[in-house]
Amino acid sequence: MISETFAFGDSVIHRLDPRLRVVFAVLFSILTAISNRFPAVFFALFLAVCLVGLSRIPVKKVLLRLALVNGLVLFIWLVLPWTYEGTPVLEIGPLVVSSEGLRLCALITIKSNAIILALIALISTMPVATLGYALHHLRLPDKLVYLLLMTYRYIFVIETEYQQLARAARVRCFTPGTNLHTYKTYAYLIGMLFVRASARAQRVHQAMVCRGFAGRFYCLHEFAFKKSDWAWGFGMAVGLIALGGLEWALII
Amino acid sequence: MHISEGVLSAPVLASGAAFAVAGIAVGLKKLDNERIPQAGILAAAFFVASLVHVPIGPSSVHLVLNGIVGLLLGWAAFPVIAVALLLQAVLFQFGGITTLGVNTLIMAGPAVGCYYLCGPFVKKGNTIALAGAFACGALAILLSALCVAGALVLTGEAFLEISVALVGAHIVVMMIEGIVTMFCVAFLKKVQPEMLPIKQTRGKIPQEKP
Prior knowledge:
The complex is a heterodimer of chains A (252) and B (210).
Chain A: H1 12-15, H2 18-34, H3 38-55, H4 59-69, H5 71-83, E1 88-92, E2 95-98, H6 99-122, H7 128-137, H8 142-171, H9 180-210, H10 227-248
Antiparallel strand pairs in A: 1-2
Chain B: H1 10-30, H2 36-49, E1 53-56, E2 59-62, H3 66-73, H4 77-92, H5 100-122, H6 126-155, H7 160-191
Antiparallel strand pairs in B: 1-2
Helix pairs in contact in B: 1-4, 1-5, 2-4, 3-5, 3-6, 4-5, 5-6, 6-7
């Protein structure tokens, strides 16, 4: 089932202005992604962990998400140390582990986790609708925001519809296996999902026209930038500068 | 098909994002306000369909379906896929903020390419349409896998082996996507042929997106 696991809660992070959270998350992710030094990426991970701690979301669920996300990272650990050329640190038969390879793997792991943790703490802690309003106030194209909100509104409906179709298939003794019949069944099921989605879209559009829809999206939600938001904004800016400093001051 | 956060280099991330923004701009321009509910609800359907896991041997793979997204939506595939990826990032943390652009390009670029390459065949008679649909599904995955490999290799030569392994691993996914897309198009042709767009391409086949 699709659910917004972290969206609803009561913490300093949940109360922050969504626009501030979006802007900070974007800048933080970019800075972390382009960092290449251990002090900087460790500091980024530290910041991200702090944010998760402050947002008081269930740690167990966060760890579960991280485990899923680290799949590709694990793949990189399995391949990269052996294939990256550099100073050898460990030799097993013909295979040589290079220190540069290990360094790169560690760097990727820390960066990846820091960015995902910050994403969970800052963005996943707001409902997607709020994210849409925030993006609208941050001057993203109207149409894109409108598309995002429309999609978000209907993923839950369409998922129920999918469950219904899958249930109908199960009731008719459909057991998935590695055969053409299975792929055909799934293809028809997905085709049916599209047909129903299209029919629903038509009904929704007609209903919208009936209610005076003139092809424009209006956002009635207003955000108030409070004093505490200024304080947090200042703190976050300091964090970003420190992060940039750790990466670049060391180079100079 | 995602590239994780923290892997790619800054120039690759930046150029991926730039191409994605350009694609989204074209897609939004071609998508008039009237069609947004349609595109939004179809996007929701793709989002749900891409969560479907189909069995393969003892394991399973999830469907990507970017071939059929391209076929049904054309250039609008860019904003639709970008929105779906954003939702995946927010709801499940598959991919993050900095890779959003690259991942959009990786999935939507091949989708639009397949729309122009395979679209004209899909509206033809039965056998050709089925072959075209199979090619559409398989080709979209192949191109996406090659884009992933390209992004990794452009980041560093060290990723060459991983890229080769990744493309190799996607050959099976290609076949499955091809089969599923083929049956799906066959189904749509019977049930609701007007959903398969392909109107203006008669006579001239526009250039594939570079």
